[in-house]
Here is the input.
Amino acid sequence: MNGYEKITESIIAELESGAAPWVKPWKADSTAAKNIVSGKAYQGINRLVLGMGSMMPGYTPYWASYKQWAERGAQVRKGEKGTQIVFFSPVTKEQANAAGELEEKQFAVLRLYTVFNSAQCEGADVPVATVSGSFDPIQAAEHRIVKTGAVIRHGGDAAFYSPAHDAIQMPHKVSFDSPASYYCTAFHELGHWTGAKHRLEREFGGKFGNPAYAFEELVAELTAAFLCQEHGIAGELRHAGYIGSWLKACRDDAKAIFKAAALAQKAADYILSLDAELAIAA
Here is the structure.
């Protein structure tokens, strides 16, 4: 049994014994996408949507509706395209129960809003986002990431790979709970990065939560587990609770984790091979 197989078997053992849910291994900082009026960071899917939007050159963490910018004396430039976000608003209605009596029922209604970044406005006066703290890099992992040649941008409150930009977005290093957490997360996103058409060409799966999306998440997280083992990093990998949720989504295929492990090994080997290729090129 090779090292990759041992990691896969250990993960299966964790899943079978029960696993704690995954906790985001970083804290939001001043560069997280936030509303300019309330100052509050966006949450849930909005955090990811605006994080992807912030990958545009010159964008800041500050967003607001057209009306909110206008009230602050700023003007959204003509032709600028807004970004849609969602909010769930509580609504109370009276409904008859089984006895015919009226009872108040609460519902959550989905509402869409369009927001613009401060970079899309004229006269937008926003604070300068700064990040402070210290980070002790794990040099072997740092060099491995650099030698992939992947475009990695830091800032905001989300970690993801954007196929459209062929780039990885990560929170600032100092925002992570530990260096190990940073590299675990970076290796996960590099796992997705290998799936691009001009690399290993995997199906990314489209919609969140569907089986193909879940399967790709399995591949990426196993890739992270393999690369962390390769670099001697013992961190809180997401595979405990995180992979468990994707396994449920893939429950129609009992062999999903083994198929994912084979693809993850290919992805990890690809990333590791880039070191030798660039060393030769140098």
